[in-house]
Amino acid sequence: MNTTRIAALLTLCLGAIGCAAPEPPAEVADTVYTNGKIYTVDHAQPWAEALAVKDGRLLVVGSGADVEAVTGDDTQVVDLHGRFVMPGINDLHHHGIDLSTTAMDPNALAIPDEQKTSPETIVAAIREFADSHPDLPLIFVEDFPDGMFPGNNGPKEMLDEADRDRPIIVLSSGGHAFWGNSKAFEAAGITSDTPDPEYGVIGREPGSMEPIGGVHESAMQLFWALKDRPSKESIAAGLRHHVARINALGVTAVRIAGITQDHLEATVAADKAGELNAYHSLAFHWRTSYIAQREQDLDLIREQILESRGFATENVASGVLKYYADGAPASKTSFLLVDYENDPGNRSQLQMDEGLFQEEFGFWTENGITTMTHVTGDAAARAVIEAVESAQGTHGKNGVRHHMTHSVMVDPADLARLKPLDMVVDVSPAVAAPMSFHDAYKHHFGERHEQFFPARGLIDAGAKFMVASDFPVGPDSPWSNIEIWTTRMNPWGDKEGTLGAQSAIRLEEAIEAATLAGAYGLYMEDEFGSLEAGKRATFIVLKHKLFEIPPADLSETEVVQTYFNGRLVYDASRDLGSTARQE
Fold first, then answer.
1. pTM score, two decimals?
2. For residue 50, what is the domain's CATH number?
3. How far apart are CA 41 and CA 514, in angstroms?
4. Residue 207 domain-assigned?
5. What is the C-alpha separation between 85 and 390, in angstroms, rounded?
6. pLDDT digits (tens, 9 = 90+) for 304-340
7. Among residues 258, 303, 306, 263, which one has the least CA distance to residue 283?
8. Omega before 429 cis (within 30°)?
């Protein structure tokens, strides 16, 4: 019997003649975790030293004595050895399923980052892949870095050097442009006579209508149409790979930005089979560059979005859609309140008719559907805010928390408008630090570049502020992201200095933005996001104590274990052995 319990028993029995056996605990934990440094993200009790778990939920969060009271003969006891414990990370913008599906596709090329240092190294990698895959009708390449070419318009003749006989299409890292070779333009039917599609751009040679080699926004559909969509089987395999990856990083919940019905069905099937070790919120493509804009397609997808509310399982939910309000900074398709630097008259545009934009926000709000809207420019942010204000003026909030993602530029006058609307706002990807591609941004935005990603302003305005990765557009390590938001410095030493240092936030704010605030954005704040009795036992054990290491070392944080709904789903170490309780 435990010595603490013996001492308590002797005290109670002292002076008595005979003593009845102690009452067993009213509730007995399945597992208790003791001797930890536990950061709960619960404002009422920020720190604890022990957890007790029963049936996948937290029974007790408190002291060692607190969990001792619910420890029975068969309770498993885990000594944390002083490790740092916190809630699992909730990443509100992620593309990991598609990335993993592509990475596992032998017919697609994912070039390692170290080979993407120049256009020449990319072309060399594509040429090697093309030579080793002579029977492929199309060569699809995962990405080229944003800002590598002016306006993200890579020259098609350069790609011709890799293969002249088959279409080659290379997605930009931000996902808002394609770079194609001459054969790709021929297959897509794009010539100097082809007008820009509505809300899309075909890059042209200066002073000419001849396509350079880049297509942007809705024009990307012309290239997407050349590529076969992944099968359900490949999506399921990609999902398994994706979940294992995020668990190793301490991520236990994601919102996947841009899915189809096949993704929804594969994810629900995985959860029903007990194979989904992370909570997934799935946002359908809606008027994005990935889907066609034909009315019959939109009618079908609209019905799928409305019906997806009924697909919810324990760890999967939908009833969410992904919009584009505007484009990308590198392509000068971000919608701005003020003209681009050195480009008078160019503010870009909203990615759809403003009246239709507001009408659709009303429709989705009325039907209880959450919009997840891509916003990079300050005019785009204002358009979203005004659309939500209009929708709520007609339909009320209706329980909907509309989600504005990226939030690269938000005018200071608009920050205070977010809280009354109960909107959730993520800043992503975590590129709010000096990086090589920012040189192109400075050319486009001038001094406004230092105002990118106004994290400090969002928090001070009381907005529901979340951090997200937008992986693979940005790094998927939450620890690199947290370092960036708290220091506004490059965590890899690639560039010195800071970007927008006035917008840095405190570590405890960054952790809450990655945990409890993220759970709020998923409508799951009563289930996870903080370590409180009654919530799911979803937490992570770290090698490093976050509040005791220099801010510049946060990116080095390592995850030792990840627990999801009380189950150990990732274990990097055998140091934390667990043993059955011994009397």
1. 0.87
2. 2.30.40.10
3. 10
4. yes
5. 43
6. 999 998 888 999 999 999 999 999 888 888 999 999 9
7. 258
8. yes
